[in-house]
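INPUT
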Amino acid sequence: MGPLDKFILRDNALSLNDGEIQIKFQSHWYRSLPLSCMDVTVTINGQPVDESDILIEANGNQYPVRQMPELDKEWLFITDAATLHVKNNQFLQKGKQYEVALNLELYIPYIIVGKDGSALLASSSVTKKLICN
Amino acid sequence: MSKVRDMKLASGLEIIGFQSLKGFPHLADDRISEIRGLIEKYGFEPACLDANVDVAIRRDRLLTNEETAEYLIPQIRMANKLGFPVLRVQMTAKAEVIRKLAPLAEKANVKLGMELHTPYQVDHPAVIELRELYEEFDSPYLGFIPDFGTSMRGIPEALLNSFREAGVTDELIVVTKEIWRKDVPTPAKFGELQERASSLGANPAQIGRLNMAFSMNGRQQLRAWEEIIPQTVHLHGKFYGFDENGDEPSIDYAAILKVFYEGGYKGYLASEYEGTAFTDEFTGFEMVQKHQALCKRILNELEAKALTISDV
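OUTPUT
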């Protein structure tokens, strides 16, 4: 949690394209990290989105979010956004407002804090009412 | 860079590769020319490029020493290509990694500056091991970058405020301060905090946040820096905020600068504002301006005093 949290979900973060929900997010760390150093979960109007329904896109490449821990070569540059692609199981509609909550956990790969070699956890949660574009 | 020049803040440039350069450390030749062109256009002298030693980049295990060296090779080469004389490296690179990289650093004409960021005090066992390696190599290409956050006099108010914003109770802040003041190694502090914070009902995100009190704020004695001044290739002048007199309440600048000045250090001092991690109340530009005013005031006093002594 910190001042960069305001960049995680911007006002235009939520959209509906080809019947698919898209949620754009940015990282809250001061330098770029690869997707392997991130965990992301999301809820819409309080309903958790099933992990198996989400793909993550960075630099034009898409992967199941489950695969993120393996993606140590796919970097998210600090001024770029990643996009979550979600099946529209909740029947969102363009022009309506929804409450999106995104939890972004960053594992800082050069700060080792645990005796077991685990990385520092820098976690942020943002909840925002967004108009679906 | 343009604004720094307009404000006459500095002529030396330090950048973090993974922050400022998309695609770092693999950049095409035309981008390298573009970056060098900008440095020249704004009249900067490249002072230091910051590498990152991301040993936990995989989630299943840490990188081996061999893999860590491989991870750093393109970063050393990029420092050379961009014209930076020093590459900041981090203590996640063990002495064995530096041993592997020393020949390349010399060949690339890039000094490896090991950042001594808390908890890595000059007498930390891993730093001692590195100092032994430096002694063995006796090379100008292996040096240190002391970070003033290693030798602080208090936890910055901006950080404590950020704990409160994360829902940490005043009781737990008192506990965190108490653990911070203990003369025990940092891992022991993480452990004690984990235990005591959990029993006080803190969640993992809050404990992660509180860990920053120890991961960012060290308590090394200032004079201990004297031991490594001859190997110091760059300085990180860390700061978090200023009081109404322009002093940094959490870092004793007058005392630290005296140690490095009297120890004969002649290189760059970077203005490293880290308050942005906790508050956006101030801009980096205005804070760097205050930092430089403070450092100039102290250095002018030291200089005047030295002249008086040499007159005698």
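end of record. Residues 241 and 253 of chain B are 12 Å apart (CA to CA).
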